[in-house]
Specification:
Distance between the termini: 30 Å
Strand content: 35-45%
Strand order of the largest sheet: 4-1-3-2-5
CATH architecture of the domain at 1-50: 2-Layer Sandwich
Number of strands: 5
Order of helices and strands: EHEEHEE
Number of helices: 2
Shape: globular
CATH topology of the domain at 1-50: Alpha-Beta Plaits
Radius of gyration: 12 Å
Length: 93
């Protein structure tokens, strides 16, 4: 558990209406992360995820590439302490 942490990310660009949330949920599943993804007003996508820091860093790299059809212009990230508040990874509306 010593390498467990929390990631907050906002993804900017053309990331809504291109299955980006489903891309994130699939990638998070591969990486065994918990948390959620949701669209934000204004066109960005928010990702809150917890798990192994190395796995979370891989998720950030995948967010920068994005889903097919998406055009990511920026990914803002911040890190905080692992909380254990999530049991799965889900899409929130």
């Amino acid at each position: 558990m010593e390498n467990m942490t929390h990631l907050s990310a906002k993804v900017y660009g053309y990331v809504q209406g291109v299955n980006f949330r489903y891309f994130v949920i699939r990638e998070a599943g591969y990486l065994r992360l918990s948390g959620y993804v949701r669209n934000l007003p204004g066109g960005a996508v928010e990702v809150e995820a917890e798990g192994d820091k190395n796995q979370l860093q891989m998720l950030v790299e995948r967010l920068k590439v994005g889903a097919p059809g998406a055009r990511v212009t920026e990914v803002e990230t911040s890190w905080s302490n692992y909380s254990g508040q999530f049991t799965a990874f889900e899409i929130r509306f």
